[in-house]
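Bumping my old thread because nobody answered last time. Still need a sequence for this structure:
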């Protein structure tokens, strides 16, 4: 056990997030003109796991800056091999900015130091929150034949699905400003469009694997607290004209009594029931829904915490 993994959590967790969008696009599909993602057979809205992970990363970076142990590995316009090279220098290996030719250097270094894999993994996990949490594929190390190049994170999210079918709309908008001098001669404004969902309530289920945290990344209780904080606030600093009004309404956390768990995840998730009220034909707010928890379906050894109450 390394110093990094010694701090790992000792309990398994499962969690469910309820969040909504009003007059916005929670996750556009670039292959469909950036329209909100839907299940084409049912009309149920979809938000990808990587979309929510991005918001969690952004929040952690915003409040902590670029300092260990809260640094973010996957961030906008920062070459990953720059951060990989930083790790190599930290463990005494002269890196190479050319990823395609670094393989020989790393294979030689590994022969000289059998602990190289562990040293690099410990450095990356101790510095970068998102690697400790979600894992990562680090191409530089993969090309060098190092096992630490592929890290499976203890925290995983499924795709979010809307409780009811959504009905995406394309709204035409105008801009009073024009683009070029030539345009000024024959038009007074320009037109565009934006895609919105009038209202949608989404649910995402997630998992925290304590065994994986203990074995690989050292995801700790401090990291766990940061994760919950980031989830609760992930839309608060992500507002934009495209996304409209988005908010986390509820976060349910199931804490097991040990690292293996006391019940299958699906049984715990099934204990949470979300449905629009019988008298509501077209939901347009969170208050149009009933959210109930069947506590009799939850083992006594599993502790349920409702971390936010909408």
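Sorry it took so long. Here it is:
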């Amino acid at each position: 056990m390394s110093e990094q993994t010694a701090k790992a959590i000792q309990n398994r967790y499962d969690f469910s997030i309820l969040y909504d969008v009003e007059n916005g696009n929670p996750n556009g599909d670039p292959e469909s003109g950036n329209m909100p993602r839907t299940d084409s057979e049912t009309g149920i809205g979809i938000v990808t796991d990587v979309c929510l992970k991005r918001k969690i990363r952004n929040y952690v970076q915003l409040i902590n800056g670029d300092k260990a142990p809260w640094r973010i590995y996957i961030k906008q316009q920062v070459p990953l091999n720059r951060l990989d090279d930083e790790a190599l220098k930290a463990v005494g290996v002269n890196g190479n900015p050319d990823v395609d030719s670094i393989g020989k250097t790393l294979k030689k270094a590994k022969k000289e130091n059998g602990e190289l894999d562990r040293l690099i993994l410990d450095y990356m996990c101790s510095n970068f929150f998102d690697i400790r949490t979600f894992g990562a594929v680090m191409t530089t190390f993969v090309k060098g034949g190092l096992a630490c190049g592929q890290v499976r994170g203890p925290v995983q999210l499924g795709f979010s699905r809307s409780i009811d079918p959504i009905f995406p709309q394309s709204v035409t908008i105008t801009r009073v400003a024009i683009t070029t001098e030539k345009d000024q001669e024959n038009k007074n404004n320009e037109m565009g469009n934006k895609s919105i969902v009038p209202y949608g309530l989404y649910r995402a289920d997630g998992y925290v694997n304590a065994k994986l945290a203990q074995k690989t990344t050292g995801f700790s209780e401090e990291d766990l607290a940061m994760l919950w904080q980031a989830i609760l606030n992930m839309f608060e600093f992500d507002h934009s004209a495209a996304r409209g009004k988005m908010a986390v309404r509820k976060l349910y956390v199931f804490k097991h009594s040990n690292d293996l768990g006391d019940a299958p995840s699906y049984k715990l998730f099934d204990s949470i029931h979300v449905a629009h009220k019988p008298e509501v034909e077209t939901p347009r707010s969170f208050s149009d829904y009933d959210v109930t928890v069947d506590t009799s379906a939850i083992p006594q050894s599993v502790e349920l915490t409702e971390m936010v109450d909408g």
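The first strand starts at residue 13 and ends at 24. Let me know if any region looks off to you.
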